[in-house]
Amino acid sequence: MPEASRVDSFCLSDFDQSIGNHLENAVELSGNPVNNSLKVSSQTISPGPVHLGTSDRLPISVDRSSFMYLEDRLSLLAQKVQSTNHIIIPSGDTENQEGSAMADASPRTDISTDADTDDKNQRFDGSQSLAAVASDSSDRSKDKTDQKTLRRLAQNREAARKSRLRKKFLQGSRSGYGNSSFVSSGRMQNPAYVQQLESSRLKLTQLEQELQRARQQGIFISSSGDQAHSMSGNGAMQFDVEYARWLEEQNRQINELRAAVNSHASDTELRMIIDGILAHYDDIFRLKGVAAKADVFHLLSGMWKTPAERCFLWLGGFRSSELLKLLVNQLEPLTEQQLVGITNLQQSSQQAEDALSQGMEALQQSLAETLSSGSLGSSGSSGNVANYMGQMAMAMGKLGTLEGFIRQADNLRQQTLQQMHRILTTRQSARALLAIHDYFSRLRALSSLWLARPRD
Amino acid sequence: MDRVKDLASKKAAVIFTKSSCCMCHSITQLFYELGASPAVHELDNDPYGRQMEWALRSLGCNPSVPAVFIGGKFVGSSKDVISLHVDGSLKQLLIDAKAIWF
């Protein structure tokens, strides 16, 4: 019989946490290669805005209805597991559990409690009304209505689920299940019952994995239903997807370049590949420009990058001057002229970075001043409101200039790359581009390792 | 436009700004860092500010500020200044206009 962990007092956050642990275990067990985005492991199933990590996979479209079905099943299973008061899932002894699950009873037997039956009825009602709505909307644009209805139903289910969980928590603590004597209580002695628990847990894990995969591949989930929120979420999400695609293409190009360099290809051939890579860099700067218009804060936050990369974030991207410092050593031998050129370039980009940073500081200060200038007292309440509105309007204007800063920061990065290419020979440029890619790729790998590190 | 040209010719490096514009602050700081002492004219504190802004736009400066002139000639906005700085041209322009010496 598998050992249940300590079942201390239950609370919702524990439940979420156990799902998080699930994910980590699932990811570790499935032996994902390090380079794959393991950001999956840091996400829980809680509803709310989802942000995508960088993925080295092409997004696959999953249609909305099958996705909602997934979410449904997940909720149902989560409740089943929870309703049997099996709260913290032990990690690391999967072998035992799988073994015992194989042994006897069929995993299909339902574990019914009263609350569970409630759930089933609710779900049935939900899907019934959904079917009813679906057939009603034949006159109008089906997609739109379905989506809105699905979203609303999802919200209802979510709210209902939360209230049920809360109720169970209260029931559980009242009936005294929240102590370690639970382990020796009657239910846990029944092997068939335990197997059912385990198979439910496995199903839950599988569904969680599918859910995470679907989310990672760009399915937009909105459980808040807030229009404004979904708008900016869309801009951010779209950029994340585009960035993931861009990374994949870059990997391909870099591999091509590496093969060409190793096989001592001609300068002409190298130049062709290099031009392609530089043009590809132009692409991402263009995409970032579009994204800056849609959601400047998403770019500034660096959430589209991996954690380790985010550590070095400057105005929504890398610091050219730092990159050049790293490259100088790897590019030898350089002619005297080249060395001067690269040093000057490094200095120029440093100066430009400092100038932009100072501008940002001025912006922050100005914004802080705008928001903190409160006039109390003398003018009437209407005066205060007008004042407030005026301040907000000014602050809004200032926020609008952030886009310009990101744009110029990207401009600086782009110009620096191109100037570097002009100074170096073809072969040196190739080595430089490979070195740059390797550096960032290692940072990303480091992020994955970090996210998958064993935690106690 | 006349006022713009007039002011632009008065010093080797001239930058038109607005007091609320933080990007202008960046570009001005860059010039100071390079050792140039640009003449800075704030459009929002100038009685002819609006016409000047219109004139700058007609020169192709978008956004209208910061607008940089070196040796009386229109150089561009922040994007142009950064690009010129990266490839070393900005420094050369400043040297040629005797705004800096090295």
From TrEMBL, chain A:
Gene3D superfamilies: 1.20.5.170. The lineage of its organism: Eukaryota, Viridiplantae, Streptophyta, Embryophyta, Tracheophyta. GO terms for cellular component: nucleus. Residues 172-184 have a biased composition (Polar residues). It comes from the Eukaryota. It is found in: Nucleus. Keywords: Activator, DNA-binding, Nucleus, Transcription, Transcription regulation. Residues 88-184 are annotated as: Disordered. This is DOG1 domain-containing protein.
From TrEMBL, chain B:
Its main location: cytoplasm. Gene3D superfamilies: Glutaredoxin. Residues 14-75 form the Glutaredoxin domain. SUPFAM superfamilies: Thioredoxin-like (SSF52833). It is found in: Cytoplasm. One of its GO terms (cellular component) is cytoplasm. Keywords: Cytoplasm, Redox-active center. Signal peptide: none annotated. The keyword Cytoplasm applies. Transmembrane segments: none annotated. Belongs to the glutaredoxin family. CC-type subfamily. This is Glutaredoxin domain-containing protein.
